[in-house]
Design brief:
three-stranded antiparallel β-sheet, elongated, three-stranded mixed β-sheet, 2 domains, binds zinc ion, alpha+beta
């Protein structure tokens, strides 16, 4: 470690303890050149968040992509950019806590759970893309769920319907 005072590179650790409730180690160091003390922190490098897609491929979690999906669903709806950014951030935090690898389903459900409370139209639009609605009855079912407001968001349809 380079001393911040004299830029010498020889030091000794004089104290070492946990910090940030165990997620970091704080070390007091003493420069062997000038004798002054300084502090360093050591922490685990955050793992990149990976999304496992329905087709089996993996890609990095991209907040911008999630935001674009929400914006499309919220077009002409009273859902401002700040609110969308908030949703993305909440979803990102939730996925990070569940990570380092999450399914695209989990991301979609996390978005839907928030949109349901914010804007029913944006919710339905997002659900129609995400759940691959193919029939007006899909909408009816979803609207019924929305009206009950209690049900948990249902899982999307499985891709690759049996072709036997
Ligand atoms: Zn020094």
């Amino acid at each position: 470690m380079r001393c911040p005072y004299c830029h010498g590179s020889d030091d000794k650790v004089v104290d070492s303890r946990g910090a940030d409730s165990g997620s970091a180690i704080r070390r007091r160091r003493e420069c062997l050149g000038c004798g002054r003390r300084y502090t360093t922190y050591e922490r685990v490098e955050a793992l990149p968040l990976v999304v496992l897609k329905r087709g089996g491929e993996r890609e990095p979690f991209e907040p911008d992509k999630v935001a674009a999906g929400i914006r499309r669903a919220a077009k002409n709806r009273p859902l401002d950019a700040a609110r969308v950014a908030e949703v993305v951030e909440e979803v990102h935090d939730q996925m990070q806590a569940a990570g380092p690898e999450v399914s695209s389903e989990a991301v979609g459900v996390a978005v839907l759970e928030r949109l349901r409370d914010l804007d029913p139209v944006a919710y339905l639009r997002f659900a129609s893309v995400y759940k691959e609605f193919s029939d007006p009855r899909d909408f009816e079912r979803e609207v019924a769920l929305l009206q009950k407001g209690l049900e948990k968001t249902t899982a999307p349809k499985r891709r690759g319907r049996s072709r036997s």
